[in-house]
């Protein structure tokens, strides 16, 4: 197997709600620093529900580590003024990377859709207001976004985000590597040449994985779902099996040219470190 040496590894966190969670995340981040990640990203609650915690968390990473912090920024329900204030705050704190997203309205949300309809408008806005200051990441969907009208429309809108100024993309997670290679082929045919980094979701809990995958439109293939279902009450065996599956997935992605891996860490270090160890990177 030949794997490129200039891989981009990045790690995603969610902002902890409590001080205790923040202390734990600090430990997790320090453990993951051995990977020399391109950045640590921090999610942003839809409708701005974690706005302050995201800000606090990225500020700490940026100030206390040698690695870049990348806030996720979702625009649904937001205004131009609000997004501009956030961008100014990030600039003032030396943050240079942003994961620009539309986001999803929380269920039962009665707020207005706001002044942005889609992520391409957010990317355009960031470029209009801050020029080339930020490295902008956007989301990509190897198994298509759950609201996509058609394969062509999904690809057209992705291309639109790239043309608006995205520098690279991170994918929704998937367990079928062919879905990723298909996306890459489609993008290449459309002249898109930005790095598209596969998002890697650990397999640690059957119920959670199935529930979350149904919501975000990620397919858990039948062979995998059945096996996980059999192991659902045996946490250790399920997690061992999950690690094997994820390691094989990453091996194949890297061997066939993926430019890196973005780990959805769930604020834990061990899983990501073990996968990297098994990949001998
Ligand atoms: P868009 O690119 O706007 O696409 C959304 C849908 O609209 C798609 O179906 C697309 O085909 C369609 N569309 C796009 N542009 C247009 C257009 N111009 N006209 C008509 N239709 C269009 N969510 C959070 O709330 N917080 C996070 O921190 C977060 N982090 C994420 C990180 C990654 C790597 C990924 C993959 C997803 C993340 N999400 C997060 C989830 C994401 O916000 C949702 O998947 C959301 O539904 C779509 O966001 P988007 O930026 O892909 O939207």
Topology of this structure?
Blueprint: E1 8-13, H1 19-32, E2 39-42, H2 51-64, E3 69-74, H3 80-92, E4 97-101, H4 119-130, E5 135-140, H5 151-164, E6 168-171, H6 177-189, E7 196-197, E8 199-200, H7 206-216, H8 222-230, H9 235-255, E9 260-264, H10 270-279
Parallel strand pairs: 1-2, 1-9, 2-3, 3-4, 4-5, 5-6, 6-7, 8-9
Bound molecules: flavin-adenine dinucleotide (FAD).
What report would you give on this structure?
The chain is α/β, with parallel strands linked by helices. It has one domain: TIM Barrel. Helix content is 47%, strand content 14%. Strands 7-6-5-4-3-2-1-9-8 form a nine-stranded parallel β-sheet. Helix 9 packs across helix 10. The protein is globular, with a radius of gyration of 18 Å. The mean pLDDT is 95. The site of flavin-adenine dinucleotide (FAD) has 25 residues, from strand 3, strand 4, helix 4 and helix 5.
Number of domains: 1
The largest pleated sheet is described as: 9 strands, parallel
Stretches with pLDDT under 50, minimum 5 residues: none
> What ligand species are in this complex?
flavin-adenine dinucleotide
Number of helices: 10
The SSE string, one letter per element, is EHEHEHEHEHEHEEHHHEH
How large, in whole angstroms, is the Cα Rg?
18 Å
CATH architectural label: Alpha-Beta Barrel
The shape is: globular
How many strand units?
Answer: 9
Strand order of the largest sheet: 7-6-5-4-3-2-1-9-8
Which CATH C-level class is it? Alpha Beta
Amount of beta strand: 5-15%
Oligomer: single chain
The structural class is alpha/beta
The CATH topology is given as: TIM Barrel
Terminal CA distance reads 12 Å
